[in-house]
Amino acid sequence: MSDGDGPSREDIVLDRIEAFRRRRPRLLEEAVNSAHGAGGKASAALIDAVFLEAFRNDTLAPMADGALLPLPSGERLAFSTDSFVVKPLRFPGGSIGHLAVHGTVNDVAMMGGIPQWISAAFVLEEGFPIAELREIVADMAEAAAAAGVQIVTGDTKVVNKGAADGVYISTAGVGVVPAGVELGADKVKPGDKVIVSGRIGDHGIAVMLARGELGITADVESDTAPLGELVQILLAAAPNTRWLRDPTRGGVATVCNELAKASELHVSLDEAALPVQNAVNGACEILGIDALYVANEGKFVAIVPADETAAALAALRAHPLGEKAAVIGEIHEEPPGIVIINTVFGGTRIVDMLVGDPLPRIC
User: Which of 23, 104, 151, 297 could make a disulfide contact with 173, Cβ separation 3.0–4.6 Å?
Assistant: First the structure.
């Protein structure tokens, strides 16, 4: 209501939402800090101001989980690359070796590709135990076999003691995109549903607790897993799936913000529908963080047409990796470019991108 002498409360709220929506992350720092690798606002600012400024091109412009490369034959390749610096190197449910394979094959899968080949490059610190390296490589071989990919090329570098933290691994992956698969933020429409393929927050909390620095114990394992098969199951059940993303660094909140910005639509989430196991929820409350921002390594967020949602859920839940799949929100036209969550208390709040670095070195 307005008293006639000024804007109404509704107009003020809409103006504030519009101002929030138009905010663009800016790189203010003069040196890189840990937040620049957390996948949130600082990462977005660094990428925009440094890397995009130098490398900008049409293939890179969508800023997806990988690139789509057209071949003269008319086929398309999905191509992605990633680096892994997790600490500790081994944690409940997995290791840096598992992550190095899963992270890259999952990025290829999010482009609609069927992962087939990956490369692996190692940066080893002088003095790193060969026995431990053998274990990590064995984990990679196991993960590659489970994902149906071959490790076909690689590189090894050794740096002086103290110049690295044991081992860093970089992988790149290639997969073929089946004909007819078209994914992208530009395909998303109002009325579409937001689906998450399972419980969120498991990986980030498992790694954090494995460090033993907080004096907190909980029975939480990383969800690290290859998602290529689950994605193909989803696409078979819901062939008009609009968009896919695996919510790793920055969690579900950050990828939903990336979608809202890219699509110029509004993502509305339902807090009561979020699948979070009790142990993760309890750890998040103790640590003062929100599970929406915690990294996952074996889950994806999918935008699916409303009329294909039931079929998508049934198909996902029939697979071991998707048995906890849930509809967690909906796409709306207004207000564009932002994410809002409907809380369990009946209110609403804006869900921003991750700010800072609450969970360092989780992938």
Answer: 104
